[in-house]
């Protein structure tokens, strides 16, 4: 007892705002049910398994812990299930998953010698009793986040919805091809339900997202309601409607009517979609659902290292399927498992390791790959719950932080972006680089002159050319049979349905095929014309992710999932897709330029415009073109010239040549690994500001290439800084999806491991007898010479 009294200064009584972890170790997936129980640090309120609590003592010196041990209770097999009051599983008020009940016991433990004192006990100091009681009575941080995410989806009806004013301005919104009216953003776009303007959303805390044009428009117009494009489906209740006046997501009961005002008509779709939804409720008769999950087949369960499942947290299958494939790649396995121990990750993590992405990725990797939580038994595998990882990776993200289903593609790109950010400055350790490659577009106008634009990407998004189906005769026969059955009022059985079969290589060929680009402004002809665009890859990544565009919008905004199979071979060769760069005899299109007025942009004007969300280059041009007269003049010029074909072209050569480039700043950028030409362009475009120049290099304005291709002796455009090799790949995994849209339904992963296909269906892991290789949404290929 004296030992405890001597350490009372290291004990805190938790306050309501403290996050208390008492359900799961922050380094591993140990819980109070684990053999050694769980130790809660009575100063930081972080929890540690028996194997890891010493690490925390070494790092923090905190000696006092509440030891929680859960022992299984014997309960009658016929206990009644509780009626759920919340759409969640495994939490208070949610669906009862019939898990066994546990009885918890407690004791106070003092490190380093593990001296133990019973709890509860009146002999304990009052401070310790109050602190322990507060921890025991609290809702754990993980469960609290889960409940908050579920209840956060409850929205109010907007006070503006029933009497919303809509302008008769003739605006008709097309089903695709949207772009912000004030900048070049084509994602995170919002349709204002009063005037039909399409503008980008808010800028996120980390610089991503939009440019605040939608909210700025509200500040000027006071038109309150907007709906996020891309969230409008047959289920209008799932559409993301935001009220700027009420400053929150809301429900618009008249959304269908408000959308119809702008040519978006769902009246015919809803009836069709309802029939489809009702039919798909019966999963046992849904052929695609059963096939992707391999339902009805005796699946041999697998256990051991690399065969650990992930518990579904509630619509988290998109995360589970994606992470299983990611941790089947050498780059992620090496970075977060074989080359990084849990001890190193914990020692280098901040005071709270639950909010550190590196720590939680390492925890997840060891949970999935070590085999510790996948031990053969007569029971089904329980899997590990990725709650802490989800909390970190989804932090401050408006979609992934909810409990709604999400798009696996969007999650993959978000994951890659976050991993790249935390590894900034350490490219050798960055596993996201193994997915990164360059895409080069070649534009040729009727003058014969060419332009090259280059960008970086992590996925190759492929259209599906249905006209190249290899089973056209069977499709014709099927259409005849369908017509006959429809005439008789009969339904087709699942084994009678015939779907188009399109070879994957035809999808890849379409990516590189010449494409006509209308309304292209040719600087050689000084006029708009039709150009020919082709695309190729400047490097072949270690891992190539192919995204199949199965979801399209038809006339009248009717969303449709292409009912198609993709014939995917075990290996592919895309060597012919290598970009060749500028060739001998080709002449580049001349640079477009604004009028050279012999002055530099006024930085005060530029910075004020940038703060409003406009691009830095555009703001420079506005200031120069209005002779730096003032903010209002520059703003008016900018609004009138946003759609100019040359708005994204660099500042005029005469102006650039007049700009002084500080040699020391040039050397600094070169020392970062950029070539001199790129560094010089960046400094010119950013008026000598190194921070803005770096941002310009990584995120150039649309249509501007930050690494313009130049002739080389080999004639090839190769990215020396990125992984590269031959164009031969082998299929290692796929993520399949079943459902009417990417934001509903279910995701499952199939991965090729140790000479066989394995299915990862949330916490279920087993040998795949019939992998649905032709039904993938995302395909993961590994370069053979990687």
UniProtKB/TrEMBL annotation:
Segments forming domain USP: 308-784
Limits of the UBA domain: 600-641, 660-700
Binding sites annotated in the UniProt record for Zn(2+): 180, 183, 200, 213
Molecular function (Gene Ontology), one example: cysteine-type deubiquitinase activity
Top-level lineage group: Eukaryota
Keywords: Hydrolase, Metal-binding, Protease, Repeat, Thiol protease, Ubl conjugation pathway, Zinc, Zinc-finger
UBP-type domain mapped to chain residues: 156-266
Reaction(s) this enzyme catalyzes, per UniProt: Thiol-dependent hydrolysis of ester, thioester, amide, peptide and isopeptide bonds formed by the C-terminal Gly of ubiquitin (a 76-residue protein attached to proteins as an intracellular targeting signal)
Function: Recognizes and hydrolyzes the peptide bond at the C-terminal Gly of ubiquitin. Involved in the processing of poly-ubiquitin precursors as well as that of ubiquitinated proteins.
Record-stated family: Belongs to the peptidase C19 family.
Protein known as: Ubiquitin carboxyl-terminal hydrolase
